[in-house]
Write a structure and sequence with these properties.
Blueprint lengths: L16 E10 L3 H4 L1 H4 E12 L2 E7 H7 L6 E3 L4 E5 L1 E7 L13 H14 L4 H18 L1 E7 L4 H14 L2 E5 L1 E2 L12 H15 L6 E6 L7 H13 L4 E6 L3 H10 L6 H7 L7 E5 L5 H10 L2 E4 L1 H6 L7 H4 L7 E4 L11 H14 L6 H15 L17 E5 L4 H7 L5 H11 L5 E6 L2 E5 L9
Parallel strand pairs: 1-4, 6-7, 7-8, 8-10, 9-10, 10-11, 11-12, 12-13, 13-14
Antiparallel strand pairs: 1-2, 2-3, 5-15, 15-16, 16-17
Helix pairs in contact: 5-6, 6-7, 7-8, 14-15, 14-17, 15-17, 16-17
The structure holds guanine (GUN) and zinc ion.
Amino acid sequence: MIRIRRGAKATGPASPVALRGPMIAWRGDPFDVGERRALRHEPDAIVAMADGRIVHAGDAARVLRELPQGTTVERLPRNSLMLPGFVDTHVHYPQFPVIASRGAQLLDWLADYTFPSEAAFANARLTSRVARAYLDENLRQGITSAAVFCTVHPGSVDALMREALARDLRIVAGKVLMDRNAPRALRDTPKRGYDESKALIARWHGRGRLGYAITPRFAVTSSPAQLEAAGALWREHPDCWVQSHLSENRGEIAWVRRLFPRERDYVAVYERFGLVGRRAIYGHGIHLAEREWRALAASGAAVAHCPTSNLFLGSGLFRFDRAKKAARPVEVGLATDVGGGTTLSFLRTMGEAYKIAQLCGWPMPAVHAFWLATQGGARALDLEGRIGNLAAGHDADVVVLDLASTPAIAQRMERVRGIEEALFVQMTMGDDRAIRETWIAGRRQHDRDHGPAAAR
Ligand code: GUN
Ligand code: ZN
């Protein structure tokens, strides 16, 4: 007899569990094969999990024949839909306390709100408190994997990794490297940044589901010597990630041009220091030229599209038509970019991505948005086959949506004709109230209707 455990602590192997209800998963990339062929919709599915992995995911009648005798299958409530956990490909957890700070575009916003907030992360108690609040909000929003910027303080990485390990979340994160154009208290040096990052790699990279990202904030705040050191570190640890910012704001781009007058464009700056390639992921990429898109595509580097941030900071409109040119598509993930971004709700983030695409002449289908939020993010982080899909062998990261989470959504859902329209209603009207359950590596870590795991 296999028992269902609710909100177990993430220690030791997860017990086998099986959930029954409707499911969506992926057969392919909708940007490549179109939404009809990409989407796998099973109206009556079973997702069976053991030891943190999915062992079966598909049509219930078929899976039932393969489940071990006596396996308990938990039926999900009405209006449920299982899907892969969301992948946030770019976010700053130290900015969670200053989310929704009004009135400035990127460079002033950094100086006025972000840097003061990050300076407080010298304090270990505050750091742990914010890390816990941020990760618990991820669970509430169905985010099961994230690429996270910390601050310049190594302790900010330790706190996040410790708390992520306790929740078994898949977190890729790193200490921000910053040796110029920032307040003194937030600056390191090329050597100190290198040494501290190397020690953090040794402590955290590959532990549980954690990975390290070498994190030069952006070309404005790192000297050539620091970018050189970051490139050297990546060559020494090629299975680590690189994350940074790229071509977000016109003032930022002009500043980079003044700082690196010999480079032909913004991407060329990072290329010069060996920071462009697979497992490199760059936030924004709003104002890139064709040469830059080509260089990203050829190298396998990815872009994190941050719709709520781009609107909130007035940065500009992301161009899917340019990113996804058929001859040289660039990997794109979706991201909250909190605190420039205004929410950790992935449904809200998808809704805003749709509106940006609309303003650029493309009414993005819901299938594309849900793919970007899950398997697209996995691909952008070079984790395809591990996360982002409900299929045997993948990490058992599952979101259970409530498709009728508010009266307004419930009445709209009465009129939908098919799964694509149902998904579109969710991403346009839904928010955290639609996240019924979040399963992390085979454990239910958020249960909207029964409270947090620790309280049960
Ligand atoms: N560019 C450099 N740092 C940041 C940051 O913290 N947020 C955003 N949105 N852009 C950046
Ligand atoms: Zn950012």
